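User: Can you help me understand a structure? I only have the sequence.
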Amino acid sequence: MKNLILFILILSAFGTTSKNEVYYCDSKGGKKYHYTKTCKGLSNCKHTIKETTVSQAKTIGLTLCGWED
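Assistant: Let's start by predicting it. Here is the structure, written out as C-alpha cells:
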C-alpha cells in the first residue's frame, strides 16, 4: 500500500497522471485535437485555437492529431 501511495505522489509531482486539456482549431474543417498549442498540426489554423477536455473533444467528433500520436 505504501508503494502505491508513493507511486501516485511521484506521478502527481511530475504531472503525468493525464493530459486532460487539449487544443483544437475552431474551424469548419477542424477534425483533430492537440496536446499542445504549439503542435505542428495547429500551425495552419487561421481561426481561433480553443481549449477543451479530451472527453469533450471526442464528444464533438475530434480525434488525436497524428503528429502527437
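Now, to help you interpret it: The longest strand covers residues 21-25. The chain has a mean pLDDT of 83. Let me know which part you'd like to focus on.
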